[in-house]
Amino acid sequence: MREFNVTGLCIPSKHYMADISNKISQIVAMVEKGQYFTINRARQYGKTTTIRQLEKILLENGYQVARISFEGVGDTPFENEENFCQNIINQISKAINRTNAEYAKVWINDSVKTFIELSSFLNKVCKDKKVVLIIDETDKTSNNLVFLRFIGILRDKYLERDNLKIPTFQSVILVGVYRSINIHWNIATNFEVDMSFSLPEITSMLKEYEKDHKTKMDIDTISKEINVYTNGYPYLVSRLCQIIDEDLDKNWTLKGLQEAVKLILMEQSTLFNDLFKNIESYQDLKELLRKLTIGNRTYFYNIDNRAVQLASTIGVVEKRGTLVAIHNRIFEIKITNYFASGKDIQKNKIIPNSLINLVAGKENFDMPLFLEKFANNYYEIYHNKDIDFLERECRLLFITYLRSYINSVGFYHLKSETRYGERTDVIIDYNSEQFVVELNLWYGDVAHEEAFEQIAGYLESKNMDVGYLLTFDFRKTKNVGKPQIGRVEHKGKRILDVMVGV
């Protein structure tokens, strides 16, 4: 029986896999055009599985494929020219020999000690066949001078192949996380294939699963909801499915999926560990992600910006229109939780368990009572405090307080609605309940009325009747005092209107 796989290579006979034939077709088209390119995507993004499927299709179409890797070869091949040349020809010879021993027998025992000899060897390899070279795990080599000399040979042969008719590879594909190799390889074509799973691709995987298990799941609904949380990030898609299948007794319902989301948010996976290691290592990356989540700021997508470039490389952000956006909802929640639990935000009062139990029951969450307690607690602690700090951190203070109540039972995500960061929707899922709390800064009566209009529109789109508006008012006037709580009906929607000040 097949299973979901999140570690290493996926094998069709053993694992449930998304149908990525459309992606493979796009890559094959690049090979047919003779393009050289780099597949650089974040870790656990399905690169290895993709190139294995690509290799299979290329072989079926008459290409010779030399798939090699620098993973596990150690440092010896990069110590000098001779070591590197011999390692390369050994790997290429063995790779082609696996699929076409007859073709490889002429040169499989060749010995090469210099780059000049290596160039001649490549002429021999590519003389009578269309050969595709795939080099996996190139990150460790991208700044190695010996490897860069090899890249230079490939570049020169590429430039000479049409004018001088010198045999060379039909296509060269470098595979890794980082794009720094492109700096030294200006012949490379941009790789624009979307490696995320599309909604149809997620659906294809669930259809294969349903054939075997007959769970009667609503495949379209579950596929769409998985896509909502993951935005097609391959590891996250497969991991959610794996949790439901193996840990939640195949509960393929929306409630089961929400439970899987809660479990994945609590995991210490390699993906998340690498993410937070990068956040701790790069202050500009940390500040960018902080502003995109807690700070509710927006930025134009500029790949020349160091923080944006790194965030894109590790897969935590993407270009959405002209702006930078956190790649998926699970990353957004994880990153927001990270900042909300940081030492820079001190919880000034420990919330008693009795109060938490009063608000957050086993099945239900009393949102009006929660907002009332937050408003009073906020006023008691922060009135007459530094306004600049509060205006900058008010959203984080709310999230920190919220997490104390919904921890391990519910979860939330942020939904920014404007270009300027005036408001944020916090969408809270607690068991089968969902709440929409709009966080707003006070910009006057007109803007406040517009907030009712906006939240009513959002409630209508979600077929919900009740919403919550929490406004932070930082005016230094006598009119601002203890929390003001009122109830408003706007276009048939009931809105709890809470205002806190300093």
Radius of gyration: 28 Å
Q: Got a strand count? A: 12
| Shape designation | elongated
Q: How many domains is the backbone divided into?
A: 3
| Average of per-residue pLDDT values | 87
CATH H-level superfamily of the largest domain: P-loop containing nucleotide triphosphate hydrolases
SSE ordering: HEHEHHHEHEHHHHHHHEEHHHHEEEHEEE
Q: Assembly type of the shown chains?
A: single chain
Helix content: 40-55%
Percent of residues in beta strands? 15-25%
Class per helix and strand makeup: alpha/beta
Using the coordinates shown, work out and report the CATH topology of the largest domain: Rossmann fold
Strand order of the largest sheet: 7-8-9-10-12-11
What's the short version?
By secondary structure, this protein is an alpha/beta fold. The chain contains 18 helices and 12 strands.
Molecular structure report:
By secondary structure, this protein is an alpha/beta fold. It folds into three domains: 21-184, P-loop containing nucleotide triphosphate hydrolases (Rossmann fold); 199-267; 346-502, no CATH class. The protein has helices at residues 21-32, 47-60, 81-99, 101-104, 115-126, 145-160, 199-213, 219-230, 234-246, 254-265, 270-281, 283-292, 306-313, 329-340, 353-359, 367-382, 387-406, 445-461; strands at 37-40, 64-69, 131-136, 171-176, 317-320, 323-326, 410-416, 423-430, 433-441, 466-473, 484-490, 493-501. Helix 7 crosses helix 8, helix 12 (283-292) packs across helix 13 (306-313) and helix 14 packs across helix 17 (387-406). The chain is elongated. The protein starts with 20 loop residues before the first helix and ends with a strand.
